[in-house]
Specification:
Blueprint: H1 7-13, H2 17-21, E1 29-40, E2 43-54, E3 58-62, H3 69-76, E4 84-89, E5 92-93, H4 99-105, E6 107-109, H5 122-128, H6 138-143, H7 145-165, H8 181-193, E7 199-203, H9 211-226, E8 231-235, H10 239-245, E9 248-253, E10 256-261, H11 263-267, H12 270-280
Helix pairs in contact: 1-7, 5-7, 5-8, 7-8
Length: about 300
């Protein structure tokens, strides 16, 4: 990590009750999806999705527009009420749980377009991600105000360290509305980390950012996995980033997980490339699309740009 993003301090920040309370068999999946499906008005957005997520891994979900990538994250994160099949955390079914319940269980989430409070500072936005883990309730505010003050001071310290971690400590007192899009994306990631999640889900973290910011994101992801043993699931359309950081790739097409494996096993597989080319109606020799031309971005098999996913 860079000098202004101290790794050691973040280790203390990300110490989580979730990890302390659960002894997980390294060979057992942390998260399992079996037969997961989602339909919108008769249109099947997800169809019989099956894969496992091991603890302390980075899993990248890739595929073309409309493949179901964001819908998959929404299903995993409790944002959809009608989800068929089974999603299990350490063997316990969590399908249909509310986002607040899953947040308490150890899920954190960022979004394609940062969902920040425009009039608040970067620091206040990061603090908003810790509201479920502040360590006090309404009664404490009445009878133990000293405890509340201490917890709020600790949360503020964590939030400042998280901003340092993503390289934006200097923005802590600036309103997010005054910041560029790339900085807002990084603040949204810091906000998602503020609750000390065990599973961090990031929806297109590198979209709309420049190469320097993408390098920061890659470094943050590596440090979270290797230094802090966090499990990360990302939807991503920059294949160079996927190859650089992912342990496992889930290749999506038409709502189905058609390939699951290492980055090379999925991204270089003829079956996945053929499925993507077929979806786009492309010629046999794929070409690079305009959406793949952003700095440092390389689309899958040229036509397999996994860009924004509304389904």
């Amino acid at each position: 990590m860079s000098e202004d993003r101290p790794s050691g301090h973040l280790t203390d920040i990300l110490e989580s009750a979730h990890r302390e309370e659960h002894e997980l068999d390294e060979d057992a999946p942390l998260l399992s999806l079996r037969g997961v499906g989602v339909s919108f008005g008769g249109v099947r957005a997800l169809v019989d999705v099956n894969f496992d997520v091991q603890a302390h891994r980075i899993v990248a979900v890739v595929g073309p527009n409309g493949a179901g990538k964001t819908t998959l994250l929404n299903a995993m994160g409790g944002m959809l009420r009608k989800v068929s099949g089974d999603i299990s955390l350490r063997g316990t079914r969590i399908t249909g749980k509310k986002p607040s319940q899953l947040a308490r269980a150890g899920f954190g989430r960022s979004f394609q377009d940062p969902r920040l409070i425009e009039a608040e500072t970067a620091l206040e936005n990061v603090l908003s991600g810790a509201h479920l883990t502040m360590g006090y309730g309404t009664l404490d505010q009445l009878i133990r105000p000293w405890h509340v003050r201490r917890q709020e001071a600790l949360a503020r310290e964590r939030a400042m360290a998280l901003l340092d971690f993503v390289g934006l400590g200097h923005t802590r007192d600036l309103t997010v509305s005054s910041l560029p899009y790339g900085s807002r994306k990084l603040i949204d990631i810091a906000r998602a980390m503020a609750g000390s999640p065990e599973i961090l889900m990031l929806d297109e973290p590198s979209s709309g950012v420049d190469q320097a910011e993408r390098d920061v994101i890659a470094e943050v992801l590596r440090e979270l996995r290797s230094g802090h043993r966090m499990t990360v699931v990302i939807v991503e359309h920059h294949m160079d980033l996927v190859r650089a950081v992912a342990d496992q790739v889930v290749g999506m097409a038409a709502g189905s997980a058609i390939a699951v494996g290492t980055p090379s096993e999925v991204l270089d597989s003829e079956s996945f490339r053929a499925a993507i080319v077929g979806i786009h109606g492309a010629v046999a020799a794929p070409t690079t699309t305009a959406s793949d031309q952003s700095p440092g971005g390389t689309g899958l098999a040229g036509t397999a740009s996994a860009g924004r996913d509304d389904g």
